[in-house]
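Weekly sync, protein design subgroup
Attendees: M.S., D.O., the rotation student, P.L. (late)

Item 1: inverse folding check
M.S. brought a backbone from last month's batch and wanted to see whether the design step gives back something sensible before we order anything. D.O. pointed out we never logged the input encoding, so this time it goes straight into the notes. Structure tokens as presented (235 positions):
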């Protein structure tokens, strides 16, 4: 089994360097919409798992389908057949989500490390540590960023190095969510890479003291500076 502390450090380092390579804005808008956010927050209150992480899991596992469980994407109103199998049926999406986070591996509600590295590593464990065992970034986290190029488990135990995960990973989703809704940060959240995508401050408009390069004003400024320098050199 991979060293989880080392994996958390690696994921934190990747987060700092990561840049989005796709546009997850449309998905992120769905995830942070007030009605959806309220449902995620209700589950967060019962489990202690930050709601943005719940939203990201819901998207990865079920494309935000409210009829499907957070645990594995099966319908929550019947017993699940995919791992974790045998869960349910449940009375609501929320009840199924609480069960997934409290009673199913990796037992997210028991997690104590909500730093960005710890949170990302929890998400990676949610999907499995097969990529970490190979020393590779998990597409479950990093698809849609420059930290991932190719390689995917196409089914249980079968890894295809040429397969590409086209679904945005959790890190890409978190970046996009925070860019839209700053309340998607949690207590251990590190500054998102998207914070560095902000446009630089607008430059000051051209003026007498700061004319546009190549303009007559710039030429006159250089001429005056040269004359002033010559005067200063006189004995």
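Designed sequence read out in the meeting:
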């Amino acid at each position: 089994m991979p060293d989880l502390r080392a994996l958390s450090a690696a994921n934190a380092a990747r987060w700092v360097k990561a840049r989005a390579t796709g546009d997850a804005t449309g998905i992120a808008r769905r995830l942070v919409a007030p009605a959806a956010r309220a449902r995620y927050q209700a589950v967060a209150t019962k489990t202690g798992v930050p709601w943005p992480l719940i939203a990201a899991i819901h998207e990865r596992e079920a494309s935000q389908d409210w009829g499907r469980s957070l645990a594995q994407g099966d319908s929550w109103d019947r017993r699940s057949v995919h791992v974790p199998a045998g869960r349910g049926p449940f009375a609501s999406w929320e009840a199924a989500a609480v069960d997934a986070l409290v009673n199913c591996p990796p037992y997210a509600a028991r997690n104590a490390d909500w730093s960005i590295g710890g949170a990302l590593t929890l998400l990676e464990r949610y999907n499995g540590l097969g990529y970490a065992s190979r020393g590779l970034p998990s597409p479950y986290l990093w698809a849609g960023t420059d930290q991932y190029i190719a390689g995917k488990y196409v089914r249980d135990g079968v890894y295809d190095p040429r397969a590409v995960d086209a679904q945005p990973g959790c890190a890409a989703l978190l970046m996009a969510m925070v860019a839209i809704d700053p309340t998607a940060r949690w207590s251990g959240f590190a500054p998102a890479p998207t914070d560095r995508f902000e446009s630089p401050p607008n430059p000051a408009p051209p003026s007498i003291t700061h004319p546009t390069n190549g303009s007559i004003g710039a030429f006159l400024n250089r001429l005056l500076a040269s004359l002033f320098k010559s005067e200063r050199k006189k004995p």
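Discussion: The two ends are 79 Å apart (CA to CA). The mean pLDDT is 86.
Action: P.L. to compare against the previous round before Friday.
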